[in-house]
Design goal:
It contains eleven helices and ten strands. By secondary structure, it is an alpha/beta fold. Strands 2-1-3-10-4 form a five-stranded mixed sheet, sandwiched between helices. It has a five-stranded mixed sheet with strand order 7-6-8-5-9. It is globular, with a radius of gyration of 30 Å.
Length: 279
């Protein structure tokens, strides 16, 4: 009997407590508020990018790569992309990156007028390396990365974020080259560090034209060829239509094309976003 009375008492107390709680002010049941996300996870970074290529390479290579980064960031990074010379002249893009006019730039030192004595070496030094694999080995295993990164970053508020090896550099012309002597007298669009050697040793005449003028210049006979790229890029840009002869002895094994980012922009990014970009 005492046991039954105890159960009744406990039951009454529980009922009273539950009823009282239900009518207490401010005690309505609510779902817990979600924990606030980190500020950097909530931010969306819109980064201005200018690269050193034209429309064909942009659509085939550059835009897909940047889209991969945007998707991997789950919308936290957006890229406004400009082609070569669109936002600032190519030879001023490194200075524009340091000033924050552009967030990310892509190019090679000799083309972009980088004021460093090592700049010609990061373009495509004649016979400097035999392949992209050799370049990557020099970069990651033989100290080249440390030398170039330090030199560029000492110029000012930029960070070197990566390299993009390309095709070997070949001579592409409107007439066949069977012998070394066949180069004599040809007018070629060539990078400065290659042009000086060809002009001196092979008797060519080198010019430097804007990229958008190369196709028409080949059509009209203003130039006889290009020494600036490999087969992939020549085909993507349709230069093979006006320069159908491809000298398969490469002038070099690959270009070293860099990616630079404004230092303040870089420091504003969360660690995982920095990792996405460098990867």
């Amino acid at each position: 009997m005492k046991h039954n009375n105890l159960l009744k008492l406990v039951g009454a107390i529980v009922l009273a407590v539950v009823t009282a709680i239900a009518f207490l002010p401010g005690c309505a049941a609510e779902a817990p508020a979600p924990a606030p996300a980190h500020a950097e996870e909530q931010s969306v970074f819109t980064l201005r990018v200018q690269h050193c290529f034209g429309v064909p390479e942009h659509e085939a290579y550059i835009r897909p790569m940047l889209t991969n980064i945007e998707e991997a960031s789950k919308g936290r990074i957006k890229f406004e992309v400009y082609l070569v010379n669109d936002l600032v002249p190519y030879e001023q893009e490194v200075q524009a990156c340091m000033a924050g006019t552009v967030d990310i730039v892509n190019g090679v030192g000799s083309h972009a007028a980088v004021p460093l004595d090592i700049a010609p070496l990061d373009a495509s030094p004649p016979f400097g390396w035999n392949s992209a694999m050799e370049l990557v080995t020099l970069w990651y295993k033989r100290g080249m990365k440390e030398i170039f990164t330090e030199a560029y970053e000492e110029m000012g508020s930029i960070k070197w974020i990566g390299i993009m090896p390309t095709d070997p550099t070949h001579v592409i012309t409107n007439k066949p080259i069977q012998h070394f002597e066949d180069l004599k007298g040809l007018k070629l669009d060539a990078m400065a560090n290659i042009a000086s050697i060809l002009d001196e040793t092979a008797g060519t005449t080198s010019v430097a034209l804007p990229r958008e003028e190369l196709y028409l210049s080949g059509q009209t006979g203003v130039i006889d060829g290009i020494v600036d790229m490999g087969a992939t890029e020549a085909h993507a840009s349709s230069f093979n239509e006006v320069f159908p002869y491809f000298l398969d002895n490469p002038v070099n094994g690959a270009w070293l094309v860099w990616w630079l980012i404004n230092a303040d922009t870089w420091n504003s990014l969360a660690d995982d976003l920095q990792g996405l970009i460098t990867t």
